[in-house]
Amino acid sequence: MPRIGIPRARRTALVASALLAGTLLGVPGRPTEAGGGLPGTATGRGGAVATVDATASGTAIEVLRQGGNAVDAAVAAAATLGVTEPYVAALGGGGFFLYYDPRTRDVHTVDGRESAPAAMRADSFTDPSTGRPIPLEEAITSGLSVGVPGTLRQWDLLLRRHGTRPLGDLLRPAIKVAERGFPVDQEFHDQTARNAARFADFVPTRKLFLPGGAPPAVGTTFRNPDLAATYRGIAEKGIGWFYEGGLAREIVRTVRRPPLVEGAARKVRPGLLTASDLASYRAVSRDPVRTRYRGLDVYGMAPPSSGGSTVGEALNILDRLPRPASDPVQTLHSYLEASKLAYADRERYVGDVPGVPLKELLSEDYGRERACLVSPTSALKPPVAAGSPDGQYETCASASGTGGPLAYEGPQTTNLVVSDRWGGVAVYTLTIEQWGGSGITVPGRGFLLNNELTDFSLAPRPGDPNAAAPGKRPRSSIAPTVVLRDGLPFLALGSPGGSTIITTVLQILVHRLDLGMDLPGSVAAPRATQRNTPTTLAERAFLDAYGPALTTRGQILEPYPGPPPEIGAATALEFLGDGLVQAVAEPVRRHGGSARTVRPD
Ligand code: GLU
């Protein structure tokens, strides 16, 4: 997982100045200077990429150089992340992909979300002996939480519809990296160390990720020949091997009888996955959701992700609230309040169910009705109640009752953005849910299985749109987003972070579009997340810059606990005109990402 070659101390110093710029920003339309010198930023032509990892970004650039398009490059980069970021990106997971097609000027999305086995029920996470939900820790490390992996069918559908290269060719760079290995960096080491106790309990996971019984040391080379062989098998035999062939049988066996080490004290619940669940899995092409904001079109992901609708609803609310570029505190207060209200509706209405009132949630009139609850000088006390997106919006509806608690969602995954020389744009968030997913590696195959089904409401309330059900996909917060100006790409972005994904995407848009920061500054700026929870969780730099002023408006802020104490690790692109593109990765969070262009400017 080699990263950009700037020493950590220097990166921190550079970002400190970006963050300071963030606190001083405020002149309408005047971008900060932060972007120019920030690490993780590249400007150029002919194609651009930003990921969390230099090897993956390098793969994308190679594919683009050889004439591949944004979809080809995104798939190849994702396969490489499966090697270098195996705890977030694996064949054993899923994700959501957004593609702007320059030929038709349409936005497409492809849902590769994991689905529940046919045997899953709303009470599958209830302990029959107590009648209560099983402890979260038990759900996280279990076969029970493993959903049908969607990644390969998603790649297959994407490449057939929008790509130009066969999957086998796009797996080649990843195979090379898996065979030759990559230098272990601090981030890889830390993620392994955080998972070491549970990894040690599974025979194949211990063997692969704890060589010699401990996390690999920083600077050593990590190889994954099993994964290289798996990728090669897929290239040769096709994805049918994974979904219906020998590999499918191995996956089912692993999920139903997790390979625990002898004598492990851990109680690991077996999974419900069957061969027919794998064989019947389909990736789904879905219409994107769209919102108008400041004369721009903001496109995002529809259910089963709540990403697009929640970002869109919050933007509609924000559009009716004060957001002076000269007063970041006022604007951030509006951001926190809009997010609070949109999250109440997300919990109540959005999931993988028929009849999600998307049109109403995203209507400008509903945004006005929700916005009228917000005071510019005092904060609504969370949790606020969901609204009534019922088409009747003449009056300012009062919010009666209270909202429910926020469901658990692990905060770890990865996002990448790619553009190509033809103007195509891909935004792809892929995940196995938790860092390390279920902790269960398929023996001899080099990849971890997801624990995405923990994204269902483990203790569903009556009418909960996110209760588990046979074949259903757990609600996600993943929010790949593209912003068009006059029908052409202007911004593209996405982030990891479980349910903080939505607030990270939203906050970057607020910084860029309302506060007039440039894109690198908007990505680097300190973050806060308000998800209709009793307190707003914020990074230390945010608390330092805005805490006291927001507190006087009634916002209750607390440090984001982590680990690590950072919100999101976003990647983004800005299209500057005349084919010039600025690619932006995080300068510091998760030890920094990697942005490249085919022809640096
Ligand atoms: N499971 C999360 C979701 O779908 C993504 C995982 C993460 O961001 O860590 O929203």
UniProtKB/TrEMBL annotation:
GO terms (BP aspect): glutathione biosynthetic process; glutathione catabolic process
Record: residues binding L-glutamate: R113, D455, S476, S477, G498
Catalytic residue positions: T413
Record InterPro entries: GGT_bact, GGT_lsub, GGT_peptidase, GGT_ssub_C, Ntn_hydrolases_N
Enzyme Commission number, as recorded: 2.3.2.2, 3.4.19.13
Post-translational modification: Cleaved by autocatalysis into a large and a small subunit.
Gene3D superfamilies cross-referenced by the UniProt entry: 1.10.246.130, 3.60.20.40
Pathway recorded for this protein: Sulfur metabolism; glutathione metabolism
UniProt keyword annotation of Metal-binding present: no
Gene Ontology molecular function terms on file: glutathione hydrolase activity; leukotriene C4 gamma-glutamyl transferase activity
Catalytic activity: an S-substituted glutathione + H2O = an S-substituted L-cysteinylglycine + L-glutamate; glutathione + H2O = L-cysteinylglycine + L-glutamate; an N-terminal (5-L-glutamyl)-[peptide] + an alpha-amino acid = 5-L-glutamyl amino acid + an N-terminal L-alpha-aminoacyl-[peptide]
Subunit structure: This enzyme consists of two polypeptide chains, which are synthesized in precursor form from a single polypeptide.
Protein name per UniProt: Glutathione hydrolase proenzyme
Native species: Actinocorallia herbida
